[in-house]
Design a protein that fits this description.
Peptide methionine sulfoxide reductase A5; binds 2-acetamido-2-deoxy-beta-D-glucopyranose; Peptide Methionine Sulfoxide Reductase, Chain A; two-stranded antiparallel sheet; EC 1.8.4.11; Met_Sox_Rdtase_MsrA_sf; six-stranded mixed beta sheet; 8 strands; about 15% strand; globular; MsrA_MetSO_reductase
Length: about 260
Amino acid sequence: MAVPERNHNRFYHLHHHHQHQVFSVLIVLFLIHVDNALCIRFPDRVAPPALHQSDQQRLQVAVFALGSFWRSEAVFGCLPGVVHTTVGYAGGSKSNPEYRSLGDHAECVKVEYDPQQNSFRDLLDVFWSNHDPRQVYGQGPDVGKQYRSIIFVNGTEESRMASVSKEQEQTRSRSSIVTTQILQLGTFYPAEPDHQKFELKQNTILLQLIGNLPAEELERSSLATKLNGYVAELCPPNIQKRIDAKINDIIKRGWPILREL
Ligand SMILES: *[C@@H]1O[C@H](CO)[C@@H](O)[C@H](O)[C@H]1NC(C)=O
């Protein structure tokens, strides 16, 4: 099995996090094992469990811009109740934006969530605690208008909640101005397939573990949504640990397909 160069970087990166040492060691053992024996057969694909119509209807949509959308997707992906995530462009006026020419749009993540498990208010807390809204037109090394901070709202109730939470954030930030915009959600343009579940796509082992889903299935898969956050180490600590344990357990039991978390 060929492991691309990028993956070695990923493993190197994982070694620097104590909670991932066990996982890293197991992955290395696994690689050696596969190289030597090739006795593990990964099925080509597994159909994802279909979401019932009623579950699908119950889902709500929230869109946020908080810097690079690769990271934003990972930040929201493994929260309880988050079923799907999609990266894309919104907040500008250019029609049909693309990654290399997104005009005045911002990089965004669209989060589809079950309101019985998670509220818009909870998502706002995650939004604030995962970027620096005081930085003007950028996040860390990513500089440019496409990385600006935006909460998209649908209707007056969400608009009110967003304003209240922005005021609270401004109080916490004291004299530094919180730059976050609050905009009514207009058109959300999904980004090109390469950018969807970007973090997960850097890890061929995990891709195989869920059955090498074709691109469109990977984009809609709730499991991939969670693992995309896990692999970026952006899940809440308790969830990160739980997924770690589950994956280690699966490796111990001889690598069947991971179907759910
Ligand atoms: C906005 O809210 C309305 C009413 O709750 C809903 O029907 C509509 O689908 C929502 N729009 C989006 C883009 O989520």
